Amino acid sequence: MAVIGGGAAGLSAALTLARARRGVIVIDAGEPRNAPSGGVHGFLTGEGMRPADLVATGRREVERYGGIVLPGRAVAAERVDDGFAVRLADGATVAARRLLLATGVVDELPPIAGLRERWGRDVLHCPYCHGWEIRDQPVGVIGANEMALHQVQLFRQWTSDLVLFTHTGVTLTDEQAEALAARGVRVVPGEVTGVEATDDRLTGVRLADGTVVPRTAVTVASRLHIGDGIGGADGLLAQLGVPVTAHPTGMAEQVEADPTGQTPVPGIWAAGNLTNPFAQVMASAAAGAMAAAALNADLAQADTTEAVRRHRAVAVGEDDYGLPVHHGPADVAAMVSQEFWDERYGAVDRVWSGNPNPQLVTVVAGLPAGTACDVGAGEGADAIWLADQGWEVTAVDVSPVALRRAADQAAAVGDDVAKRLTWQQADLRTWDPGAARFDLVSAQFMHLPDPDRAMLHRRLAAAVRPGGTLLIVGHHPSDLEIPGIRRPRLPDLMFTAEQVAAVLDPSEWASVRVETIARSVTGPDGDPITIHDAVLHAVRRR
Predict the structure, then answer these.
(1) pTM for this one?
(2) Among the four residues 4, 76, 100, 380, which has the most C-beta atoms within 10 Å?
């Protein structure tokens, strides 16, 4: 799943999806609407937190459960096959089964000098967000539109020193003037041309005739619109056919969606200020969680439908891994599960040759021994070989059966090797090395479907210490075209070295080798055949 927008709604949705064990990536342009504000208010347990801290905390929580937060701007999106393709400004493409849009809205302020510069500090709009912070101060309400009188009624609760500047948007009836007088609200006619500040503090409101009325805070009702690139004739919403409607107040535009955030376009949800322009942060976060739950339920139904279809299908044989030739999502899920690999390892005395993988041997030959992490360790051939070369190795695999076999093999080699090995069982779709850093991180033929694969590769890259080496090797997709080759016929599990390199930040890596390497092996009939390894070899900058 792809979540476009990394504010409270988007991160809340991503956290819910990640905890539901869905692969999720958040595409965030890093332009939160509330960035100028000094704090988030009315957010239970997070009262007063800086907006930047809220985002940073949310990102960490999403990443803790295996989600990816990708800085970038989505510029194009289209439906492809059974999902969507989202293109970023840097040319990268993200594939997703479902989309959740949470890009928020943009505040459109009246053209009054100084408003934009002081927006979110002492030029405000929401009494529940900022009223307490300006309580009992001299406050002005600028009558830029029909919402000004509503703001006066609300802000009067926080201060008795309140002035309504009628500006260009308010013409009072006798009844309205009487109500203002009854509440002790002073009315100042005339057009507002600017706000004044001294020592970075607002001091007054300037009128067209030059008069300056002392105020320490002003409020103005902004009009809300969906930002460029998302809204508009060429924006993502138009590209995807998601309808945009006017808010009943006439002060905003919003995405059309049901109470769960589902839009009229199948497979697309929206949450936060996109669907409720006036929602505060807590309401936006709640809407994100609700949309994520509805989206996950939709996927669960789709998974069930596919499973039933597969169950009813007539298999015409099995491949070398015991999977039906008619592959589908259920087969991919089975291929990466603990149950599958426990059964596979438990069915025979040995699955693999017992020899270390050749690309690992080639790379390690030029490295001094240090700490290593072997991911997808299987029966332990690579890990045991590394330990025999003097490396301290953490070996991780999904199958306890394989790890027990590997530990027994290490013990048979000798105590000097066995004591340098730590065996760890984990589901690599969600496993995270945490704060551990290694001189070498190796994943040899560890195949997961996207986005789980990209998420794992990002975590592996993060586990390489400065000056350390990342080596990821996999079966190249072209091998699927070789008759009789011992490969699961699951294209979703295959990858190229270029796909791995795409998850790395070039500024963090001093050397990146991206290759497809051919090598000869013995085929099922005993004849030599040529296969291809996708090899990513990278060294982190010091």
Answers:
(1) 0.62
(2) 100
